[in-house]
Structure formats: structure tokens, C-alpha cells
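Morning - magnesium ion inputs below, output right after.
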Amino acid sequence: MHAIFLAGTAGSGKSLLTSILGPWFVEKGSSSIIVNLDPGVISLPYTPDVDIRNYINIEELMEQYQLGPNGALILSSDMIATKLPEIQEEIDSFDPDYAIIDTPGQLELFAYRESGPFVVKNLSAEGKVAIFLFDAALVSNAANLVSISLLAASIRLRFGIPQIAVLSKRDLVEKGWKKILKWSSNRVELEAELQKEKDSEVYLLSKGIASSLAKAGFSHELIPVSAVTNEGIVELSASISRILRGGEEVED
Ligand SMILES: Nc1nc2c(ncn2[C@@H]2O[C@H](COP(=O)(O)OP(=O)(O)OP(=O)(O)O)[C@@H](O)[C@H]2O)c(=O)[nH]1
Ligand SMILES: [Mg+2]
């Protein structure tokens, strides 16, 4: 079984992309299941095969520990790791080729407290990869692109597994996505764009971060994807296969 984690800022499109990827793998002849790791989610665009909400109930936590919604979200996030044995057993009972794992909307709770990285590192799977979603709506200017790249690098550090960078909601930036891809793949273009920044501190900081990420070998060549029109899914799945199966691609 290979594990594919979907991560990204709140609302970046993790759940919708999860709902597309699951059936996509099945259509291509692999078995896949969808795992929801978000204890706080109310409605999902898919029916999960494995659901953390069967183990953690936010409303019960609020009542039991007299917590407000934020306190309950933090506690529920910390509890995810304690449920790993049950989640693992459920996933293994399906014996799928791929487990597509949708992570909580509150990236900072999942990634920066101990629980999320524990689950990512300790889930037992043949191969693991994280898809990090760059929300097209958030990276339409160069300084923002750098700042989300920094977040992606930070998530790479926290999870400790290979990462694929996706420009999500590509259909929402019909004209702008090519520009974003150009910045993400060409440092000269990126720096030229950053130079237009009026705030000199923002300019210097983003230029320095972009340069450090490049020096560290952290490349974030973005794959533009739309979970509405399905554009980019073929490229994304090829990239997943390259990482997980060492180049042996899912039949197209
Ligand atoms: N146009 C368009 N809208 C999208 C796309 N992907 C997601 N959306 C919309 O963006 C909103 C958020 O999508 P979700 O899939 O719930 O995002 P998420 O990252 O799971 O959100 P949280 O779990 O709440 O952080 C929804 O209204 C989706 O319909 C896309 O590719 N194109
Ligand atoms: Mg979601």
C-alpha cells in the first residue's frame, strides 16, 4: 500500500482533489481508498472508506472537557496520533494499492503540533508522498508565491517525506496560471517580478527566501491542477507514480 497525503492551507482544495484522485486510480486499474483525517469536518465531497470521525467526536470533546470550538479542535488534532493503530488496521483491511489521505483544514494544528508528523512518519506503507497544494487564489503575486513556498518547505521538514507541489484551482486563474508557473520555474523571472515590490523589506526578504530555497535544492515546480475540470490530473498522477513506484506509471 502506498500513502498519498493531501496537505495545504485552509480551503486550498485538499478534499475536492482527494475526491477526484480516489476514483481516478480505480479507473486506471489500481485499488484505492479514501481516508479522512479531519476530525472537525462537517461535510465532505466524498464518502470516506476510513474516517477519523468514527474515533474522535468534536462535540463530545467540547462537552466532556468543557471546551470551546478552538480548544476542542486542538485536542482532537492531538488525539489523531493516538488513533493510528485503529486507522492503520482499517486501512490494511482494505489492502489497497493506494490510500489517499485528506488532512485537516487547520494545517497549523496538523503539521506543527506533534500528532500530524507522528501519523505521517509512523503510518506503515510501502511508499509515501505528500501533495502540497498552492492555492491559485493565494499565489497570484510573486511575494505571496515565495511565502507559500516557504510554508511548503516547512511542511516538507515536518513530514519528512517526498513532496509534490500542485497549483490548485487552476480553472480559477485562466490567464494567470502560466505567469505563476513561470515564476516558480525560473528564478530570473521571479526576481524580476519581485523587484516591482514597493516595500523594500518585503522585496529583500522574499528574494532571500527564494534564493535560500533554491540553494537548498528545494524545488517547487508546480503542477497546475483543477479538481473541477480535471486538468492536470494525468500529470499529477504521473508525478505520484514516479515517486512511489520509481517511474512505473499508472496505465493511461
Ligand atoms: N474552481 C475550483 N474550485 C475548487 C477547486 N478545488 C476546490 N475548490 C473549491 O474550493 C473550496 C474549498 O475546497 P476544499 O476541497 O474543501 O478545500 P480544503 O483544502 O479541503 O478545505 P479545508 O479542509 O476546509 O481546509 C470549495 O468550495 C471547493 O469547491 C478547483 O480545482 N477549482
Ligand atoms: Mg478539507
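Note: The mean pLDDT is 94.

O.
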